[in-house]
Amino acid sequence: METHFLKERSMAQRLLLRRFLTSIIPRTPPQGGWAPLTSRTQQTPQHSHGGLPGTASPAQTLHTTQVCSTTFNVQDGPDFQDRVVNSETPVVVDFHAQWCGPCKILGPRLEKMVAKQHGKVVMAKVDIDDHTDLAIEYEVSAVPTVLAIKNGDVVDKFVGIKDEDQLEAFLKKLIG
């Protein structure tokens, strides 16, 4: 019981420190600005065997596209609200920590099982050390903790490691 109290107190202290630091450190982009994360076409010159640009060859076209993934890392509270709470697709939320051994086993296993659902469910990853406020709000007292959220409501939850059969049953129950 005392360990549980100390862990919550530590999480609350980190939350207060984070709020203090974000209030005094501006969140502005670097002077040159951030590069956009959009699809684009870029032309690159054709090179001859000598490494010099060829004059007779036309330019090659390089296409880049954004990859759609079923798993994402939560960036902050508004991101969680937008991509998890307001999601029309059911969301599995994996509360984890870098120092957590069981999390390192469960995370990839859960990601694999979510990917097998072909977009019927998505997975949000929340690092409790980076997002203490979310961990406190969703009453996470141990990691890994996995929540099933549908239409903004927590409909199921488990703590600890599960095997693939148990994860499949958890996901099927969420999808319906």
Write a compact overview of the structure shown.
The chain is α/β, with parallel strands linked by helices. It contains five helices and seven strands. The radius of gyration is 22 Å and the shape is globular.
Task: Tell me what the structure shows.
The chain is α/β, with parallel strands linked by helices. It has five helices and seven strands. A hairpin with a 2-residue loop joins strand 6 and strand 7. The chain starts with a helix and ends with a helix.
Total helix count?
5
Based on the structure, what is the oligomeric state of the protein chains? Answer: single chain
State the order of secondary-structure elements, H for helix, E for strand: HEEEHEHEHEEH
Q: Could you give the count of β-strands? A: 7
Radius of gyration: 22 Å
Q: Give the strand order of the largest sheet, numbering strands 1, 2, ... along the chain.
A: 3-5-4-6-7
